[in-house]
Structure formats: structure tokens, C-alpha cells
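This part of the workshop introduces the protein records we will be handling. A record pairs a protein's sequence with a compact description of its fold. As an example, a complete record with its sequence and its C-alpha cells follows.

_____
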Amino acid sequence: MLENAKAFSGFSVNDLAAAKSFYTEKLGLQVDEDQMGLHIKISGNAPIFVYPKVDHTPATYTILNFIVEDIDKAVDELTAKGVAFEHYEMPPTDEKGIARGKAANMGPDIAWFKDPAGNILSVLQD
């Protein structure tokens, strides 16, 4: 029934201006804004819609994953722009905040960070 339907992802934030600044200035993404919210453009033409919500509660799971060729380079560049990476015990993350899944034969290398609304995002190298 939906196999030919176009789809898009969406999530809420509590401060649209802060989100727009973060996604454009820190992450370097193209972001369009209209009366409904933000439209983030990413590779593959799958739009992401970000909408304001007064009683926003941050997602407790990863809402957006960015696949990168070199995770160390991506983490270093984002850190230089002021992005703070999360540190976890499980899976264990190193001093940069990267969980080295490849070395442990447990999935990709991945590092998590939050947007200004507290939503969790990641960069990962598969």
C-alpha cells in the first residue's frame, strides 16, 4: 500500500531559531524555513522536518544518523565548531566520545551528540 509513497522524517524542538543556527552553522546543512518549521536538506533528497513544540521533550534515542567516511575527522571538525559529544559506559566511548564498534566486532564506529533541544544525533563510520 505505501511502497510508492514518499516519506519524510520529523521531530520537534523547543527553540526553532536555536535549531536553525545549530543545523546550519555547526553541522553545515542547508535549512529552509517556513511558517510551519524547518526543512533540513540532506543527501538523497529525503527531507527532514523540524517543528516547534512548546512542551517539547527530547528524544531518548538517536533521531538522526550521519554516515561519514572518517569518524575521527568528523568528530574533530564538529568538536572544533563547539559540538559536545556524549560519553557512555555502554557501549564504551573513548576520550573523543567515539564507540569503537569495528574493533570490538560490534557494529560501526559511532559518536553521539545532542542538538540544542536535547535530541540525540550521531555520526557513524560503517
About this structure: The chain is about 15% helix and 35% strand.
